Amino acid sequence: MTAPDCLFCKIIQGQIPCIRIFEDDATLVFMDIMPQSDGHMLVVPKQHGANIWDIDQPSAMAIMTVGQRLSLVAKNALQAAGVSLMQLNGAAAGQTVFHVHLHIIPRWAGSDLRMHAREQADRIKLVAIAEKIKAGL
Ligand code: 5GP
Ligand code: ZN
Fold first, then answer.
1. What is the distance between the alpha carbons of residues 55 and 75, in angstroms, rounded to a whole number?
2. Which residue ranges make up each domain of the chain?
3. pLDDT for 60-104, tens place per residue?
4. Is 101 a catalytic residue?
5. Please, what's the b/e burial string for 114-132 (b: 16 or more CB within 10 A of its CB; e: otherwise)?
6. Ligand nearest to C-alpha 48
7. Which CATH class is domain 7-135?
């Protein structure tokens, strides 16, 4: 179910802190610490798998079902114009954390995405955005 030395398994187990948005039996949703836009969240299955082919179908369905709901919550809460859902498999595709996850990235017209996994955001700002999203759940 979990893998040793996996960053996201440690976050799921509470061994490493995160700014938590939502949790159910199969998934955890938390703020990305190096967001590409305001409100960038990650949906992770509790079942460890390096990529989308390494988890079972219920876990794959769970991350998309939760992503469908949370992307709308974020869109409404942050008054975004759109939302990008992104899911990277393999280093060649740009994946940097090898526990599968779905990115939820709110979008506004004319604002470009920040670089992927590059710059850590201010924690106070992340918490403020997280509170807005959670209020819309
Ligand atoms: P990937 O490149 O694997 O698709 O995405 C990994 C994501 O995890 C990146 O967007 C990166 O900013 C984020 N990330 C990396 N380390 C941490 C961390 O310790 N905590 C959180 N919340 N996000 C992280
Ligand atoms: Zn893991």
1. 28
2. 7-135
3. 999 999 999 999 999 999 999 999 999 999 999 999 999 999 999
4. yes
5. beebeeebeeeebeebbeb
6. 2
7. alpha beta
